[in-house]
Amino acid sequence: xxxxxxxxxxxxxxxxxxxxxxxxxxxxxxxxxxxxxxxxxxxxxxxxxxxxxxxxxxxxxxxxxxxxxxxxxxxxxxxxxxxxxxxxxxxxxxxxxxxxxxxxxxxxxxxxxxxxxxxxxxxxxxxxxxxxxxxxxxxxxxxxxxxxxxxxxxxxxxxxxxxxxxxxxxxxxxxxxxxxxxxxxxxxxxxxxxxxxxxxxxxxxxxxxxxxxxxxxxxxxxxxxxxxxxxxxxxxxxxxxxxxxxxxxxxxxxxxxxxxxxxxxxxxxxxxxxxxxxxxxxxxxxxxxxxxxxxxxxxxxxxxxxxxxxxxxxxxxxxxxxxxxxxxxxxxxxxxxxxxxxxxxxx
Length: 347
What we know:
Strand content: 15-25%
CATH class of the largest domain: Alpha Beta
Radius of gyration: 20 Å
Strand order of the largest sheet: 3-2-1-4-5
């Protein structure tokens, strides 16, 4: 079974094809980062317009890469939310039209489910159940994953997401957009221990996160960072505080659930210091650690294609929904299960 996946939730236009027998057969992506850089962040209207101009060409490229025709596709999966509504509508409309033309199942994929299942694209895959840390520019949460569509949120951020804190701190340091990866590069030249920041909410029980105070602490210390080395030291101190906090919460989640498998997904999951910190923590406690490859940590269509394939394989025949800018993960259901909560009115 071959499933085309489409991703247009923010500023990446992507298409991928997942084959149940052969695995990932195609993956193409266009990033709008350069276009949005002059604004210091994503401009929703510009993002949607760019998706319109690129999505057909990217689907064509993915089919060519896989050596397939459109009539050889067995399903169409697309990111239905959460995300920028204009951007989501582009992918949803394209997917719906192609599904109707091919009479193929149309599967609406929750963006966060795509991230949670992204490690399944790797040769070394986790087995259900596992604890997942989903950490990106818009989300920071810990979840227990018992299967496709079976997610229990254990804790999430009360304010800024970790990736958002990375981006805002990078902007304060005068680094170019997108700021998170640039801050990580700067931190590589920083010295540990020069700037010491607290590890938010680790001095109390629980699995919730909070990064707004840490961001404020960095801004308070910023006037003391007058040269390039001091800025690198500041970036290092911030990065260590974030990665330590995430690692401490992950260890608590493993203890609370009794599970021995940790999955890390989302854009911040590509951070080298976080990977090293979590590798040391899980090795010490005899737990298994899984990451998707770096290009599948950030937004991509490969994870959407896989999630669609997994749902069709589990018996889902059609779940095409209107796109939703907000879509709580708690409302997601397993294939074939009835919704447990009433969804908010879709856009």
